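Hypothesis: this fold can be encoded by more than one sequence.
Test: take the structure tokens below, design a sequence, compare later.
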């Protein structure tokens, strides 16, 4: 059963209005005037898919979604005015996909997403995020896709990647990243695709990509790279695509002593 309530002028979610729909699986409340999510908003339902995109949400109470914890699989809160995510906001044991694109989140604290053990993908694009604290994604041990494009992040560190043991795709395009810490990828050794296009990277050191032995696609186009260390791509034995276009690389192949050594599977450069 699907109940769309899009493009109306709904300002509040009232549990008494939803209680009769005990077989409801999909609820779309997009394009309304909802400004807050309260603990009492949702009664116990069999919801699998919940969309509250393009509203005016500024605040969310912890416990808002607790009554949906055993069934909810997809939650979309894109294009709202959310500036902070309270701790223990999402205690949804079956949720697989969470979207928070185009909000106003600037900082993500440690343990923010604790309570989402089944999550496969998290989208946080176009928020203006400047800081990811240590353990920001701790607990997301099964997450495969993390999209952080179009934010204001300045570095990649082991601290905020802590615990992402199953991560396969990391999208960091259109940020302000100028530094990758030497041990950044310690917890992300299943990564197969890494997008760092349109950032501020000026150099690729011999430690920049250590540990990414199953990486297949590495995209560093449209940065400011003018230096690539010898063996910068050492250990990327599975890499098939390396994108370095639109950088500031000025020296020629003859000047290099092995920057591309070890790329035995490379198909596209």
């Amino acid at each position: 059963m699907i109940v769309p309530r899009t493009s109306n002028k709904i300002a509040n979610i009232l549990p008494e209005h939803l209680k009769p729909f005990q077989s409801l699986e999909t609820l779309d409340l997009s394009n309304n005037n909802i400004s807050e999510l309260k603990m009492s908003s949702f009664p116990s339902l069999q919801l699998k898919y919940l969309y509250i995109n393009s509203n005016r949400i500024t605040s969310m109470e912890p416990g808002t979604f607790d009554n949906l914890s055993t069934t909810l699989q997809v939650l979309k809160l894109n294009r709202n005015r959310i500036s902070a995510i309270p701790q223990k906001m999402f205690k949804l044991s079956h949720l697989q996909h969470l979207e928070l694109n185009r909000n106003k989140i600037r900082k993500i604290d440690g343990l923010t997403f604790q309570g989402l053990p089944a999550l496969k993908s998290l989208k946080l694009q176009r928020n203006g995020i400047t800081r990811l604290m240590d353990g920001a994604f701790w607990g997301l041990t099964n997450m495969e896709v993390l999209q952080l494009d179009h934010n204001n992040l300045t570095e990649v560190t082991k601290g905020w990647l802590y615990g992402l043991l199953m991560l396969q795709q990391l999208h960091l395009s259109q940020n302000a990243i100028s530094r990758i810490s030497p041990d950044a990828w310690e917890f992300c050794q299943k990564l197969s695709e890494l997008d760092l296009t349109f950032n501020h990277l000026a150099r690729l050191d011999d430690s920049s990509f250590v540990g990414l032995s199953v990486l297949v696609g590495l995209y560093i186009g449209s940065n400011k790279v003018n230096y690539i260390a010898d063996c910068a791509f050492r250990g990327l034995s599975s890499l098939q695509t390396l994108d370095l276009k639109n950088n500031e690389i000025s020296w020629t192949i003859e000047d290099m002593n092995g920057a591309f050594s070890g790329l035995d599977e490379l198909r596209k450069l």
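The CA atoms of residues 2 and 238 lie 44 Å apart. The first strand starts at residue 2 and ends at 4.
Hypothesis status: open.
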